[in-house]
Amino acid sequence: MISRLALFVIFAFVSGSGASKKFTDDFLFGVATSAYQIEGGWKDDGKSESIWDRFIHENPKRIWNQSSADIACDSYHKVEEDIEMIKALGVDYYRFSLSWPRILPNGTTDYVNKKGVEYYRKLIKGLRKNNIEAMVTLFHWDLPQVLQDQGGFLSEKIIKWFSDYARLCFKLFGDDVKTWITFNEPKQTCLMGYGLAVLPPNIPGSGIGDYKCTYYLLKAHAEAWHIYDKEFREKQKGRISIVVDYSWWEPLITNNTAFTEAAESGIQFMSGLYANPVYLGDWPKIVKSRVAELSKKEGEKKSRLPEFTKEEIVRIRGTYDFFGVNYYTSVLALPNLIPLPRGILNDRGCFQIQSPEWEGGKSLWLKVTPWGLKKLLKYLKDTYKNPEIIITENGYSDTGELEDDKRISYIKQHLNVILEARDEYGVNVSAYTVWSLMDNFEWIDGYQSRFGLYHVDFSDPKRKRTIKKSALYYRDVIKTRCPEGKCE
Ligand SMILES: *[C@@H]1O[C@H](CO)[C@@H](O)[C@H](O)[C@H]1NC(C)=O
Ligand SMILES: *[C@@H]1O[C@H](CO)[C@@H](O)[C@H](O)[C@H]1NC(C)=O
Ligand SMILES: *[C@@H]1O[C@H](CO)[C@@H](O)[C@H](O)[C@H]1NC(C)=O
Ligand SMILES: *[C@@H]1O[C@H](CO)[C@@H](O)[C@H](O)[C@H]1NC(C)=O
Fold first, then answer.
1. Ligand 2: which atom is nearest the Cα of residue 105?
2. CA-CA-CA-CA torsion for 273, 277, 278, 280, nearest 10 degrees?
3. Which pLDDT score is estimated for 20?
4. Buried-most residue among 46, 189, 310, 367 (CB within 10 A)?
5. For the chain (length 488 residues), average pLDDT per consecutive 10?
């Protein structure tokens, strides 16, 4: 009894002393970008067109203020400057992506563009020299247009195209890369690209194309993971996973079955669809049953959702070394009782709204909801067998202020709930990544929504970069391990 009481006293003392509000020394901090959003040099040194180059050049009005990413932050010509900026933050790692059409202008490995490879080699070596780990995303949306012309993600060939590209990258860079990510946010590629057609390649096919794309994309992911596992892991000693973007789905009425089911359906259709096959095997139950039922009603012979064979389920299940999650915001779920045209919005049977009372960022969809991250982390732990979780993106958009106190507050609140989720639920989060290193091309929002820790002047041909207050804050957090930037 006495020793138990003594233990309790010690525990109470330790947790009451503020020690629990600190990140442990093995917790890693990073900062992220992606190739298309920062590099520019869209046709320099033999790079070919990506689906984003084509989309913007053909539909300039689809981008805010008709901006393009032809130059973006001009990072293709600013390796040293980028590294200096990263170094000044004191981060453990830099998450960036490789441009597939820069390395393989023909999409396939029969021709490797040496100049493109050199750019990434210089970047990776430079990081290494400064003790910054490279966390490398193979695909952050910029598919070579030449592969899109042959069907893109609606062609089964994408599995071979992607896994060949992945193997080449492991070979070229793997000695200096410890963390690989196959696909960033498959939802944006499949649902937005081949379903709702909001993003390139802009091919409408909701309820069919988006599922088919997801089916092939996950198979491509799994092949890349197996290639790494079999041919490179032993020698290169790295790890590899996929990144899924999640919003937290909170039932608008928490006390009501229809609303809790709406929230479950929402999170499964919007995120579980991409995570479940990898972490548990097969599609989420609710997705399978809803699409099968609706397909039947529509007179289809089989479900519009491709069915995994037993072999495929086994091949895809377990192809992860950590759970990569991008989190920005939450939504409120309510059931949809009105039939909609065929498509994912009808399939999922729910709507999402956001409370007008939630504070917003510059991006319309981004509301500040750190409580949602806390719930999400517990959900991921409970749903996916307590994986090691890496937050691969989290960030706040404004209009580019240098005194960006709202960004500081956003990061602080999210870091605090990560500590709470660790202490209260035992969630294993091992790393946190701020999106983004610098203001950059925010897709169809152009340059109006700024996520950077550094400001970029896009009217200056030199793309002058200026440090923001949030960068200094983040630097202090990393140094002190405390979200407040200092510990009592
Ligand atoms: C819109 O684009 C034009 C031309 O590139 C530029 O001069 C202008 O500053 C942009 N407007 C805003 C509000 O950024
Ligand atoms: C790329 O493909 C095109 C046609 O498919 C071919 O003409 C060209 O030679 C290829 N480029 C290289 C460098 O192999
Ligand atoms: C849940 O619903 C019941 C009635 O259905 C109600 O009595 C109760 O107050 C509700 N609880 C909350 C927390 O809203
Ligand atoms: C978190 O996961 C990593 C990797 O599986 C493991 O080494 C570590 O012990 C885990 N930490 C906790 C606190 O569970």
1. 1
2. 110
3. 54
4. 189
5. 43 43 96 98 98 98 98 98 98 99 98 98 98 98 98 98 99 98 98 98 98 98 99 98 98 97 98 98 98 97 98 98 98 95 96 97 96 98 98 98 98 98 98 99 98 98 98 98 87
Q: Name the residue among 433, 438, 423 with its Cα closest to residue 392.
A: 433
Query: How far apart are alpha carbons 228 and 319 in whole angstroms?
Result: 10
**In the annotation, is 401 catalytic?**
no
* Spatial distance between the Cα atoms of 228 and 236, rounded to a whole number of angstroms: 9
Which three-class secondary structure state does DSSP give residue 326?
strand
What are the pocket residues of ligand 2 if the criterion is a CB atom closer than 6 Å to any ligand atom? 106, 111
Tokens of 382: 């409970």
Helix ranges (DSSP H) in 228-306: 233-236, 257-267, 273-279, 285-297
Tokens of 65: 């203020």
Q: What is this structure's pTM?
A: 0.94
The arrangement of secondary structure in 4-487, i.e. its CATH architecture, is: Alpha-Beta Barrel (3.20)
User: How far does the centroid of ligand 2 lie from the alpha carbon of residue 108, in Å?
Assistant: 10
* Ligand 4 in reach of 388 Cβ (< 6 A): yes
DSSP for residue 204: -
- Kindly name the residue from 133, 223, 250, 393 that is annotated as catalytic: 393
Nearest CA among 343, 62, 358 for reference residue 202:
62
Ligand 4 atom 10: residue of nearest CA: 428
Q: What is the pLDDT of residue 486?
A: 80
Tokens in use for 384? 């996916």
Determine whether 185 is an active site residue: yes
